[in-house]
Amino acid sequence: MTTQPPAGYAYGSTPPSPVSRDELAKLEATVLFTADDVQDLRMAGDVLEDQVEDILDVWYGFVASHPHLVAYFATPDGRVLDDYLARVRQRFGQWIMDTCHRPHDEEWLSYAHEIGLRHTQDKKNQTDQAASVRHIPLRYMVAFIYPITATIRPFLANKGHDEGTVERMYQAWFKSVTLQTALWLQPYAADTW
Amino acid sequence: MTTQPPAGYAYGSTPPSPVSRDELAKLEATVLFTADDVQDLRMAGDVLEDQVEDILDVWYGFVASHPHLVAYFATPDGRVLDDYLARVRQRFGQWIMDTCHRPHDEEWLSYAHEIGLRHTQDKKNQTDQAASVRHIPLRYMVAFIYPITATIRPFLANKGHDEGTVERMYQAWFKSVTLQTALWLQPYAADTW
Q: How confident is the model at residue A4 (pLDDT cuts 50, 70, 90)?
């Protein structure tokens, strides 16, 4: 990881989320997210910190191997935008660390909303001045819960923790990815969210 | 499980889904769902078949212990509708078996769409003539991926399969729940889906 903040990373300077703290608390309860998960995610952050580039290699390899996914990093006529991929990659790495270390406060809620917006017609491409397609369909936001969760487990097991500890970190990660995906979808469907 | 089909269960007699087979195939690829998962889900079906009521006890216990969740089985002023809970419970049990055994064909796609509709303002409460609130918010549809996935694992391990086999069944279940949730959200956000 670079020590420079990634280009376009705006944590701490985005507007308040329309999602309330009470709505967040109820979502946390629904995914069974507790103070233990906060601790387990911190441990996961220590485990993952020097593996971030390897994780991103797996995720980018997955996207690159599926034309219907790499299309979201391409122009409408299919030219892949390498600079866009590279810029998003830096923020994706930062997101791994933020998922593990950031407290679930107003700033976190605000930036989760910003991440959602950046996948919709409202803000996709803007941050990176990318000439890509206008949004990422909601269905892929949900579907990504699976690969983003399942692929993290081997990395959590790479530092010699016992199986029970790895499993706890993995479950905390799964809860957080599910919770964040729910938050990211607010701008996709404000009326039914 | 009763041998009678559950009240309101309309598998095989619902209109075609707006989701195409091609869109389904791309979603399956995104959650890494393969022919191996079909086999692992079948095995899971055999494992879970005589545990369905116990699984439903866990899920209903979870909902019942959270006022913000049981509200979706209650009137707008908070009176819990026991008959509605009981009728949905039967179909929920059937859904476990369908998840394990039904092929991903046009009928399956159609009924997945029907399930989605029955959580939205379009069709919630209709099947059961329930006097409940008008929809289940999209965010809880996503959040439920976690409890519906995580709680199934002990049941998959109850029949003496080795750890690797249990894990394969569990991952197939996780993929299917994620995939189906993506499908269920189409009527929530047809424009951005």
A: confident
Here the tokens at position B131 are 């006097």
In a domain, A10, yes or no: no
User: Is residue B150 within 8 angstroms of chain A, CB to CB?
Assistant: yes
CATH number at residue B174: 1.10.490.10
Report pLDDT digits (tens) over A97-114. 999 999 999 999 999 999
User: Would B33 be classed as within a structural domain?
Assistant: yes
Global pTM value = 0.97
**Considering only CB atoms, which chain A residues are within 8 Å of B66?**
26, 29-30
Mean pLDDT for chain A overall: 97
Per-residue confidence (pLDDT) for residue B4, from 0 to 100: 84
Q: Do A192 and B140 touch (CB under 8 A)?
A: no
Would B4 be classed as within a structural domain?
no
Q: Do A66 and B23 touch (CB under 8 A)?
A: no
**Of residues B150, B186, B192, nearest to A171 (C-beta):** B150
User: Based on the number of CB atoms within 10 Å of its own CB, is B80 exposed (0-12), middle (13-18) or buried (19 or more)?
Assistant: middle
φ, ψ for residue A80 (rounded to 5)? Answer: -70, 135
Q: Which residues of B touch A113 (CB under 8 A)?
A: none
**pLDDT surpassing 70 at residue B1:** no
Query: ipTM of this predicted complex?
Result: 0.97
Q: Is A182 on the interface with B (CB under 8 A)?
A: yes
B145 domain residue, yes or no: yes
User: b/e string for B106-144 if b means 16 or more Cβ within 10 A?
Assistant: ebbbbbbbbbbbbbbeeebbebbebebbebbbbbbbbbb
Q: How far apart are the first and last CA of chain B?
A: 35
**How many domains does chain B contain in total?**
1
Query: Which residues span the domain enclosing A39?
Result: 21-188
Residue B181 touches partner A, C-beta closer than 8 Å: yes
Cβ B145–A145 below 8 Å, yes or no? Answer: yes
